[in-house]
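S.,

Sequence below, as promised.
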Amino acid sequence: MAKKKDSEKNESTVPAVQKPKKRFFNVEKRFGYTLHEMWRYKMSYGLVAPFFICFIVFSLIPLVWSTVLSFTYWNILEDPVWIGLDNYQYLFVDDPLFLKAFSNTLYYAVIVGPCAYIASYFFAWIINQVPDKFRPIYVLAFYAPSLTSGVAMAVVWNVMFSNDSTGYLNSLLLRLGFIYEPIQWTQDVDLIMPVTIIVALWSSLGTGFLSFVAGFRGVDKELYDAAAVDGVTSRFQRLIYVDIPQTMPQLLFAAVLQITGAFSVGGTMAGHPSPEDAGLTIMLHLGDYSGTRFEVGYASAIAVVLSVLILGLGRMAFKILQDK
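The prediction came back faster than expected:
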């Protein structure tokens, strides 16, 4: 009888195994909580709704549709035909022009991206030292080249890098005796991308530059006084210990813009097609298949690869700068 009581006692002390809650209940509860929070902050969601609608309509849906089309053959005139991974196989294995375009784009992005990023921050920091009444003039002077249209910019720089002796640069070099015959700036295979990079850097102080200017204006001046107490006296030290940490959101924003712009370059000084495809980029290759050959399925595969590359690098930049 005592053993029976002990066993009942032991069984009573053993905690009962709780049954797992049904997942749909948690999902339903969380969904209801989300709707409640959205209704609670309905004014805020209403203000950001136009952006999200434009993002879904003009970015997300085209990206999803392009991903679907990348697995098909579609020439616009006929219905799409499902071909699986054939487009991607041809892209990475059998298309030498894509590899050429990828190498040219990478060469361009590795130089223009970091250089334009650093130059934007540096000139914004310099302009921040200018008195307030003169600052708008300097901002406009540095920002104006990025507003120039591609046609106008090509007209100006084509005169500068003209292949004959009447071009500004060739004429100057001939007069100084550095060369004895005109340099073919836009026809020489080895010079096409460097010339394109020079022109791109000239007009690279765009939206990221403006964000840096605004970021410097938002730095609390009291932080400079607090840093001075700790021995931070020179402008360079204030840049390192005060300005850069306080403008980290702008650094992240500009990094994403520079990555997107550097890998989305769509034109070179040599035009398209260029000699030996020395100026071919991924965007030009994509436009060739979508707008000239009307092979939309293959062009969609190129677009998907480019999008994944940009998203991956943007996510990497976001991770690095966000942690700081």
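The longest strand covers residues 72-73.

Coffee later?
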